[in-house]
Amino acid sequence: MGQTWEPALPGVLGLPSGRLVRGRGLGRPPPDGPSPHFALYLLGKPPPVVAWETRWLRWPDLGLPRDRSDALDALLEAWRRAESERVEIACRGGRGRTGTALACLGVLDGVPADEALAYVRDRYHARAVETRLQRRYVRTFLAGS
Description:
The chain contains four helices and five strands. It has helices at residues 68-81, 96-108, 116-123, 132-139; strands at residues 12-14, 20-25, 38-43, 53-58, 87-91. The protein has a five-stranded mixed sheet, covered by helices on one side. A hairpin with a 5-residue loop joins strand 1 and strand 2. Helix 1 (68-81) crosses helix 2. It is globular. The relative contact order is 0.20. The model has no long low-confidence stretch (mean pLDDT 95).
């Protein structure tokens, strides 16, 4: 792999393939360490301007992405790039939307959809994926794709 995250850094989730993705909340200062190469920001409004490449996925707090097709495309991009780049997934608090997106990355990486919630809660944050709608989104993420 190329220049990815160190597994022990705060918020870094290891996927079964070995890809490493950092989740975080934009409401807190960024953790110490290197900056991401690419970030996927899950917000209801445009994200802040940063020095690295970003993609904005319109995703309101406690809700779901506004466009399921765009969400799949954005998450696939993040998953692909995580093979060789430092990828960050972030929302305001770093748990609900971020946890949901990380669980979906787990599904893309081979974690069974019905196990992805537990996978992310065990390895990223115990309260990741906050709402019933978000849990259902993870379970049905690739259904019908």
